[in-house]
Design goal:
There is one protein chain. The chain is an alpha+beta fold. It contains 3 helices and 5 strands. A hairpin with a 2-residue loop joins β4 and β5. It is globular. The relative contact order is 0.18.
């Protein structure tokens, strides 16, 4: 018998604005079911295997991470998240259209991360 701890699932929550909206949840709801399932599966993998490295997760610096999901439609989805008070918090989600993560998407996720920490 080993003393290895059992894997622990880190709970994932959606960022909530001051008005109560959950932008990542709303974005997911607008996607086709097959894409929602693929993204959800990758988020679940991140929860069970945190901290996860490439190719599933990539650190973006200052506590921000991206979960990368290749979709059947040859598109790529990204969910930007952070670890906050024992939770993975989904800050922003988008379909990636270029090789680099767009500055606007990064800035939005960082703004939401700062809101959390205030």
């Amino acid at each position: 018998m080993t003393d290895d701890p059992q894997p622990q699932k880190i709970p994932l929550v959606f960022f909530r604005t001051a008005a109560g909206a959950e932008p990542v949840r709303e974005w997911l709801k607008g996607l086709p079911e097959t894409e929602r399932r693929a993204i959800g599966k990758d988020l679940l993998r991140a929860q069970w295997r945190w901290p996860v490295g490439m190719p599933l997760c990539r650190p973006l610096g200052s506590g921000l991470w991206e979960v990368r999901t290749g979709l059947q439609t040859k598109r790529t989805a990204r969910v930007l998240l952070c670890l906050y008070e024992g939770y993975l918090v989904a800050l922003h989600g988008f379909i990636k259209k270029s090789r680099t993560t767009p500055d606007d998407d990064l800035a939005l996720a960082r703004r939401r991360q700062r809101e959390l920490e205030q």
